[in-house]
């Protein structure tokens, strides 16, 4: 199951990182993502609306929805109960990863150093989030880490945008790239689905060019 989710994430190349303040906007957001050609969402547990938004998006069945900014095992439980297909964390925490694995859900924790990558490997993971990508050495750092860790794949996130997306996606070791630039919080709050759709479509065009 987790392999299939990883494959889908890699196939889509992009992971929109969502901060949503009102779960009532979840449906408009999901419709915009699908219309823009990117049926994927990482809904972060930075707002109280996260679990309800995940629930609303998961119920549609047309978006690969996961939870982001998952810091505790309790949040893993909450995310999985809401229908999250994967759980993303800024760093690697054993308890969080193990709870996700108990649920049979993909864990995508952050790792930006060789020591952190080894910790993730020890937990049985082969793909990690590379966060925050921009301030952790960017594409050059990923290339350097990929040399010893031949089987490991990275999902750089943090400081990625239309200007540097290509640098990351050009790397064989990059499974997908995450970011919030195509799902601005303000547009989601306004219920501006067309604005989101346009940004999503632009990102998809860049990612597949
Ligand atoms: C995340 O949690 O993955 C980041 O906040 C996304 O980073 P960005 O806003 O720089 O894209």
TrEMBL record:
Q: Which InterPro entries match?
A: Aldlse_KDPG_KHG, Aldolase_TIM, KDPG/KHG_AS_1, KDPG/KHG_AS_2
Broad enzyme group: lyase
Write down the chemical reaction(s) this protein catalyses.
Answer: 2-dehydro-3-deoxy-6-phospho-D-gluconate = D-glyceraldehyde 3-phosphate + pyruvate
PROSITE patterns in the record, alphabetically? ALDOLASE_KDPG_KHG_1 (PS00159), ALDOLASE_KDPG_KHG_2 (PS00160)
Q: Which CDD domains match?
A: KDPG_aldolase
Q: Which GO terms label this protein's molecular function in UniProt?
A: (R,S)-4-hydroxy-2-oxoglutarate aldolase activity; 2-dehydro-3-deoxy-phosphogluconate aldolase activity
Keyword check for Lyase, yes or no.
Answer: yes
* Top-level taxon of origin: Bacteria
Annotated keywords: Carbohydrate metabolism, Lyase, Schiff base
Q: How does it assemble?
A: Homotrimer.
Give the family this protein belongs to, as stated in its UniProt record: Belongs to the KHG/KDPG aldolase family.
> What is this protein's name?
2-dehydro-3-deoxy-phosphogluconate aldolase
């Amino acid at each position: 199951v987790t392999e299939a989710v990883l494959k889908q994430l890699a196939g889509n190349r992009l992971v929109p990182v969502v901060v949503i303040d009102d779960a009532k906007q979840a449906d408009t957001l999901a419709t915009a993502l699908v219309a823009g050609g990117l049926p994927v969402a990482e809904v972060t547990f930075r707002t109280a609306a996260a679990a309800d938004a995940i629930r609303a998006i998961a119920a549609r069945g047309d978006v690969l929805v996961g939870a982001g900014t998952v810091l505790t095992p309790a949040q893993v439980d909450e995310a999985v109960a809401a229908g999250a297909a994967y759980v993303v964390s800024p760093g690697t925490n054993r308890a969080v990863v193990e709870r996700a694995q108990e649920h049979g859900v993909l864990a995508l924790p952050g790792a930006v150093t060789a020591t952190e990558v080894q910790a993730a490997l020890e937990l049985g993971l082969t793909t990690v989030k590379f966060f925050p990508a921009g301030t952790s050495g960017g594409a050059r750092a990923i290339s350097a880490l990929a040399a010893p860790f031949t089987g490991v794949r990275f999902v750089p996130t943090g400081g990625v945008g239309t200007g540097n997306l290509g640098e990351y996606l050009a790397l064989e070791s990059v499974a997908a790239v995450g970011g919030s630039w195509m799902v601005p919080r303000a547009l989601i709050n306004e219920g501006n689905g067309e604005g989101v759709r346009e940004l999503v479509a632009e990102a998809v065009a860049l990612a597949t060019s």
